[in-house]
Known about the structure:
Chain A is mainly α.
Amino acid sequence: xxxxxxxxxxxxxxxxxxxxxxxxxxxxxxxxxxxxxxxxxxxxxxxxxxxxxxxxxxxxxxxxxxxxxxxxxxxxxxxxxxxxxxxxxxxxxxxxxxxxxxxxxxxxxxxxxxxxxxxxxxxxxxxxxxxxxxxxxxxxxxxxxxxxxxxxxxxxxxxxxxxxxxxxxxxxxxxxxxxxxxxxxxxxxxxxxxxxxxxxxxxxxxxxxxxxxxxxxxxxxxxxxxxxxxxxxxxxxxxxxxxxxxxxxxxxxxxxxxxxxxxxxxxxxxxxxxxxxxxxxxxxxxxxxxxxxxxx
Amino acid sequence: xxxxxxxxxxxxxxxxxxxxxxxxxxxxxxxxxxxxxxxxxxxxxxxxxxxxxxxxxxxxxxxxxxxxxxxxxxxxxxxxxxxxxxxxxxxxxxxxxxxxxxxxxxxxxxxxxxxxxxxxxxxxxxxxxxxxxxxxxxxxxxxxxxxxxxxxxxxxxxxxxxxxxxxxxxxxxxxxxxxxxxxxxxxxxxxxxxxxxxxxxxxxxxxxxxxxxxxxxxxxxxxxxxxxxxxxxxxxxxxxxxxxxxxxxxxxxxxxxxxxxxxxxxxxxxxxxxxxxxxxxxxxxxxxxxxxxxxx
Lengths: 296, 296
């Protein structure tokens, strides 16, 4: 698949998810309607829907029906978005712009931004618990995976470690731990939930999880590489901002060449993990190549 | 039941819940352990566990086993606590003290306070989705009620209306709407979830919900009354702070006498709603009297 074809495929899948996000986050005509404006503003600020797309494809390769993961795919995107809103707050990263647009607290004020993040997190658990089908036990397990991966032993845990290590050098092990949690945990649960709801066997779920774990690391290393080698207009943010903010990065710890090697290594591991799916894994394998060689 | 007896009963029930909260929030020995410190600090800062107690007793009068609502009772308290942490933030109410102790952002810094609130909200959904019993469908419905009541159509909706109406006078209808959402929604869902998990019939669940709706309003009016007539040392906060912060209150809109009448009216309605439970409702009826005539 050429880059252009992959881009089109990703855009198509993102549009599919966007239709459901639009319904789930329909603005209510009530006294608190500004909260819906704020939730929608950040959710529809140009996200690529990577986590929902991973989830849908993990579901598909296990033989599942993509429609069954829609609530989880949307919930995942709401959780990802809430984490960005709170990350951008003055007390956290203090970012005024994201993808070239004013961040939530710049647009709506800090109090509304805090609450819009909170409301998206609540909404995520609301949509996944609306389930009325027969496989309640499996869905309950998926809700639990969602909560664990977003919480103190997942994404939030990684954010804490990231904050605590800013401005001081950490070991490669700690950097890996940080990213396995901060960005890796929900990439992993996106894939594992897709496989679980898709009816995957234990072996298939394990394989998908191994794929996601390695993809998450490769993705993060590429992120760090782009911060040094990327093009500002393609990235939508200044190049070199990690170093300026004294963030710990793979490039900072290992240098550019070794980082590129490592990204390829993890990317290969991710693809190998999908071997048991044969041809069915084609899209996820090409997506891995696309993501770990991306320019923005 | 005398006040002293009621106080002892409430303390005993609170201690029962605290034991479980302590287990659910056990500090982990890992690089992000400060998040557990921050979560525990606010959860164990002297809360009275009113919502869990209401839930347990709503379960009991429907003939249910209190042990079955423990995860939900703890989740409810985590959600209540997260909302207080975020409410206290500089961008929101900017409170340095709560119950005489430094608030989370004063103690741990603003970034950790934001994340501790987020982590408690995640943890709430984690503990309720750990369920492995047979009544998965009922538990799923309860998770949904929890999410809805805490979200944009519940507590967060009320917080938004509260923020937007600060500094300008609102109608009594809007004040009621505000409180029905801000404090009322989770008091209601605490009771309704207790009745639901307790195996209550539709009629019983409806009665418990009607009780909770009226109790919530009576409780809020009493809160407003105490802000004017209360004793600073008993309240743990300055008297008259509502008026100073230009908050809309029942006392501000209706005066003290009319507010007292109204509190009694809603308190009566709450107690009447429990008629179908006969003697079994004794504790909840006495609790209603206790809460709506409380001094702090």
